[in-house]
Each structure stands twice: as C-alpha cells, then as structure tokens.
Amino acid sequence: MNSAYEKYFRQDRLPHIWCPGCGNGIVLSAFARAMEELNIDQDKTVVVSGIGCSSRATTYVDFNTLHTTHGRALAFATGVKLANPELNVFVFMGDGDSSAIGGNHLIHASRRNIDITAIIIDNNIYGMTGGQYSPLTPTGKKATTAPYGMVERNFDLCELVKGAGATFVARGTVYHAKQLTDLIVAGAKNKGFSVIEAVSQCPISYGRRNKMKNALEMINWQKEHAVNVKAAQKMNPEQLKDKFLIGELYRAEAPEYTAEYDKLIERVQKGGK
Amino acid sequence: MNKKVMQGNEACAHGALAAGVRFFGGYPITPSTEVAEVMAKELPKVGGKFIQMEDEIASMAAVIGASLTGKKVLTATSGPGFSLKQENLGYACLTEVPCVVVNVQRGGPSTGLPTSPAQSDVMQAKWGTHGDHPIIVISPSTVKECYTLTVRAVNLAEKYMTPVVFLMDEVIGHLREPIDFDEVKDLEVVDRKKPDVSPEEYVSYAAGEDGIPVLAPFGTGYRYHVTGLTHDEQGFSTMAPPVVARMNQRLMDKIDNNLDDIITFESENLEDADVVLVAYGSSARSAKEAMRWLNAADQNVGLFRPITIWPFPEKEIRKIAGNVKAIVVPEMNMGQLKLEIERAAAGLTKVIGVNKVDGEPITPEEIINAVKGVL
Amino acid sequence: MKKYQVKVNEKRCKACGICIGLCPKEVFGEDYLGKAVVKDDGKCTGCKICELHCPDYCVEVGETA
Questions:
Q1: How many CB atoms are closer than 10 A to CB C38?
Q2: C3-64 belongs to which CATH class?
Q3: CA B188 – CA B99 distance, rounded (Å)
C-alpha cells in the first residue's frame, strides 16, 4: 500500500463502506497524500465531518476524528479550533451537508476566516439516503425527489464562499486527483478559511439516474468538462459553455479569526478596552 | 464580608468562571443574554474564549468541539433556543462530552412570552432530544445558587462526562440579590479525568468500573474517533445488538448508579407535615413564603425543594407521600414535574397542582389557597 | 527504461472498473466478478493513474529493479 495510505488510514477500519466506484475514496486518498506532503503532525490534527456518505471519511483517517451531526461539522470545528488554535483542523462535508442544512455554518466560517480547511465532496446528490436532490444537483437532473428533473437552480459553492469571505477557494475533481492533493496542501497552508470543492461521482444514486452508467463514465465526464482556471483565461464563452473551472479560483488576505481573538486576549489582559 | 449585588444570570456566569469554564459559545436570546454578556467580557481576562455563533445549533456544536479539546464549556439560552440546541445536546449525551447548557426559561410555546417567566421546559430538559438518554438537570432558586450550583453543574458534567442542563427561569435570571463572595470562595472544583494509560493502550469508550469513559483532550497524542452513531468501546459505529445494548445501558447506568451523589434537595418541616409543598426554581420562593404563613397559622406544612430535577428524586418523594394528606406542586407550567411526582407518589397520597401560565409568578396566596383546600 | 510491478489486492477490490478503464496501456483485465486483475504489467509506464484513482486503495504500482 502507498506509504501515505499506510500512515494516515486506520488500517483496521478498511475496507470502507462506500459503494463500488464512489469518488469519496479517491478524495480521501488525495487527502492522505496531502497529509504526507505537509508532513502533518497526526497528534495535533483534528478531522471533523458532518453526516452523509462524505462524513464517513473521519472513520478511516488516523487523527482525532469527530463525526458530528448533519450540516454542523463547521460549527463543531469552530469550537475545536478556537479552543485550541494549535490544532490543524480539516473538515469533510458533502454537498447537501455543507450547502443545505449546513449552509449557514459555511457562510459564517467563511466570514470569520477561521483557520480551517474544508473539503466539500460534491457528488451532486444525497447519496446516503438513496439519491435525493441537493442544492448542487444541476437543474434538470434527476433524483428520487426530482423524478421529473430538478426544477430549482443550483449553487456555485465556490462563488458562495468567496462572497462570504473565505480566503482560499479551489475546485478540483476526482479525475484530477494529483491536483486535488495540491489544492488540499495549498488550502492547509492558507492561514484562514479554505474551501476545496472536490467534484466527485456517485455512480449508484446519481449516475444511473442521469444516463451515466458507471463510475468510469462519470470520471471521464469530469475530465471532459473541467477546465483549469488558467487555461480558461484564453478561452471564449462559447468554448467554456457547459464547462466548469478547476484549480485555485480565489485567494485573499484577511485577518484570521483565532489569531485576532488571541490578540484581543492580550489586549484585555494588558488592561486595554 | 465581600458582598456584591447581582442578577441571577450574572451570578451564573461568574459561577461558571469560578468552576473553570474557559469557553462559551452562545447566541443572544431573552431572558438569558446577560450570561453571554458577562462571559464575553470576563473570559478574555482569564485567557478564555467567547464566541457568538450564528445560531443556537452552532453554539451547542461549538461548545462540544471546544470541550473535546479539554476545556470546560458553557452555553446559555432560553426556550426557543433550547429547542434548537436539542439536536447537539443529544449528540453530547451519546458522545459523553461534558458541557453545561443554561436555559433561562420563558413563557412558551414557540416565541411565547420572551420577557416573562415560566417553568415550562422541565420535560423538554429531560426528553427534548430524541432517544433514551441520561441527563442531569439542576434548578436554582436564589442568585447565590445561580453561582454555587453552576459550579456544581460544571463539576457534575466533568465527573460524569455528560451534559448538564442548568434550568433557571426569568425570575431567577433577572432577580438581584447579594452574594457574599467570602462564602463561596472555597467551592470544590472537579476536573474530568485524564487517561492513565499510554495512547497505545487507550480505549476511548471503555469505561472503567464506574462506567464513566475517559476522553483524552484532542491534540494530546490520544487519537480516537467520536461519533454520534451508536458506537462500541473503541468509539466506532456499530449495529451489533449486544454491543448496542451494552453501550446504551452503560450510558444510563453511569447516572442511575450514582443517584445519591447527583440528587440534591432542600427540605423543611417534613416531620409531622400534613401537606408538603414540592417546588423548585422561583416557585420554591413563593412556596417557602406560603409555608411560613401557614406555619405561623399553626398548619403543619413542609417544603421539599428538588435542586436536582433530573434524575428525579423519586425515593424522597415516595417517602414523603407515605406520610402526608397531600402534596401540593406549584409550577409555572400546566403541571410538568407534577406528573413525575404523581408517578412517585402513586397510591400513597394525592398530588395537587398550582399551575400558572399567564407570564406571572405564582404568589404565596395562590399556594396557600390550594393548601387550605386540602387541610 | 524503468520497469514496474502492478499489484491488485483482490480482497479489497469492489470491481468498479476505474483502473481498467483509465489505464492508457491496458495493463488490467477483469475476472469473472469484474474485479481488476493484472494482465500485463510489462506495459506499465508508471503513471500511477490506477493507484491514484482506486477508490478502495487496492492497486499499487511499484518500481522493479
């Protein structure tokens, strides 16, 4: 087994419960390789997740892991990070988890610019419950609760968190697995709130209902439709039609919340107001 | 003598600080907000952290996260906010993360009467979150108790690795009374246990003989998993019926096997009493006054004031019930703790409620009238 | 030219077909259950696209002497 996987996975918890061809396992291995590249201290790192398929990630990685309630991962993580800013905090969420039930926590973690790295596995569907539409299900696509096609508009999560104040925003795909590792590394290095949307595939609950018959077809779809943000600069709107951007989408400098709070403590303890 | 006059809400916050609370996550809501305001001001002075989260769900989540790093934590809310906290309150019960949740009760249901007192969350404090679960609920009756019992609430949370609900009401929260800080300066402070084995030997939810797990603070080299799924001793989810049964039973037993330590109460004039008033929170103040008036009129009336509401002091109530003509229960609700008292007193005596839900406190006269109807 | 050895942990393989489909050199075949089997790792160029994309961490590409 790859050395990163050997080190960062709880071997006694594998194999994982994810379906054949599920992208979650690929995102998780990209994460493990990122941890190796960062040479992260396993004893000083906390990985938090919400509820859904993505949230099972915390079972398999060897850190202090916290599998929380649906949508609330970032709120728990905020408590962990603020209480002990020395800890590295990573959060795994799904698309429904982060953008529907957890949408409020996502925008406020962004606004605070708290030093947490959030990896949002976007498979366009609620997989764990069998394929209901999420705020990231593209309009027109089918789900068990959208049997005639999704009538709602879908979010662009990266634009959302950028608008809310996140200081590192990136999108990767399962197909671009090496790049995904690089994006996680860059996000972890950003001293602030970092979001990496990992476009993934759910062949069982999404693909089969939407004319993509297996995981391979879905991964190839990612390959064909993802455009690197740098390459996109040289492309015209016609060429970019139906495409989505990957890579580092946005970076900004802003005060990081826990550091600011520590400064506040220092000021107050010196008798300041 | 070192007396200060303060509100119950303020006393609660200062008690929390004295107990070693170093993290507060909250959301503004009447009539509990002063707890947050004091914490926001005082925590940085002692190196603690205060955060106003985006809602009550998030504040409950944040305190659990903070507690897992080893900090003592507090959150405070009122009725509607308490409803929102239920999701993660259940999470803390199952994952056995110590925390104290203050609920300064106001009139309900729904938005109800934001600035008026009530005691209508007694059952919610016990059963508000889904699933069978243990919980400790403490109810103060004086401003001094808001201080001393918050210390006790934090101690119980740390000792039993459980959430503790500190169930105040608007009257107590906004009441101003003096506290003599010389009297409360040497209160016992309990810290949660730390592992006494190496990380290799550590099993997070393998509780020892006392049935209470030792959760190592995150970041101290003990890597383990915490999940709101039903889990085994290793902390990983399981659906194996014998393991599920064992873990759920232990969760209940860690409280049920320690009732004598957890349950506290105050009693007066129980011997020879014909009628005993059972009251808690601010209603107990009216009950005490009513008892005094009745005693002055040579009526044998006693008072039993549960300080720990949950687990319920069943044994004590049953003992009283065997000796009296009636138990009278004044509550600012439609009769919530009365149900439990009826259960404990079943077949031994009658239980009469004095119930009021109009946003006004219960007066001593109203209690006296109820007692006179029995005597 | 470097040579590579490709291993598949068949116990962990869930027969998703990703490695088989992504491999540019047709190193993999499938068994009667659809699980990946190494057909010819002599063709392997060491790109590791299989290892990087195996959702179940059962494909490993190693350099041989």
A1: 16
A2: alpha beta
A3: 18
Residues of C with CB under 8 A from a CB of A: 12, 14-18, 20-22, 51-57, 60
By Cβ distance, the residue of A2, A21, A216 closest to C60 is: A2
Nearest CB to B49 within list A43, A72, A82: A82
Q: Report domain extents, chain B.
A: 3-180, 266-372
Query: Does B221 lie at the interface with A, CB-CB under 8 angstroms?
Result: yes
Preceding omega of B306 cis (within 30 degrees of 0): no
Fold of B3-180: Rossmann fold (3.40.50)
Question: Are the Cβ atoms of B61 and A82 closer than 8 angstroms?
Answer: no
CATH fold group of domain B266-372: Rossmann fold (3.40.50)
User: In chain C, what are the domain boundaries?
Assistant: 3-64
Strand partners, A67: A49, B227
Q: What is the pLDDT along chain A (273 residues), one digit of tens a residue?
A: 789 999 999 999 999 999 999 999 999 999 999 999 999 999 999 999 999 999 999 999 999 999 999 999 999 999 999 999 999 999 999 999 999 999 999 999 999 999 999 999 999 999 999 999 999 999 999 999 999 999 999 999 999 999 999 999 999 999 999 999 999 999 999 999 999 999 999 999 999 999 999 999 999 999 999 999 999 999 999 999 999 999 999 999 999 999 999 999 999 999 877
Q: Is the ipTM of this complex over 0.95?
A: yes
Q: Residue B136: what residue type? A: I
Structurally, chain A folds into a number of domains equal to 1
Answer yes or no: do A26 and C54 touch at CB < 8 A.
yes
